[in-house]
Amino acid sequence: MSTSSRQSLLTEQINVLVKHFGIERVRKAVAKVPPEDGKELRRPARKNGARSQGRIRPNGISSLESIRKTHPEKHRLLSEFVLRLKSRQVLPESQDIRHFVQIIGLKEIGGKSREDMLPKLIRFLVDQPIDKLRADIEGASNISEQQRLMGFSVLTEKLLGKS
Known about the structure:
- The chain is elongated, with a radius of gyration of 26 Å.
- It is mainly alpha-helical.
- The protein folds into 2 domains: 1-33, no CATH class; 60-160, no CATH class.
- The termini are far apart.
- The protein contains 8 helices and no strands.
- The protein is 62% helix and 0% strand.
């Protein structure tokens, strides 16, 4: 990239910053930048990210792949379960997943959509013993909207003090 094209790119970027933040804030920010003495400027560390903690949380698939060689039977079970989850043959709604994780002992699962919850669910299941995993996966097939509603009615009856 030539010097003139770099200069025009820089000018464009500064104009965008000025338009968005105002000239005074841009000037103050530029004033805080230390003079460059032949070294590259260091990027500020993120205060709130997985990379700043020195590790990256694996997604569900990478944690599943991590057990391929060490636990082939568990890998096979979970791989089949993931395929059924993705095709919505089992736990088709996000509420079904929330109900399922309560049953299997996961205290809380964040995320609003199924896509946000699935990696967290898989990471939890990867760490489970094979016998418990078999039972949990088998139990997932029985979870439906009707069962969820039945669970809520039992809870409501208990809260209201009915037998």
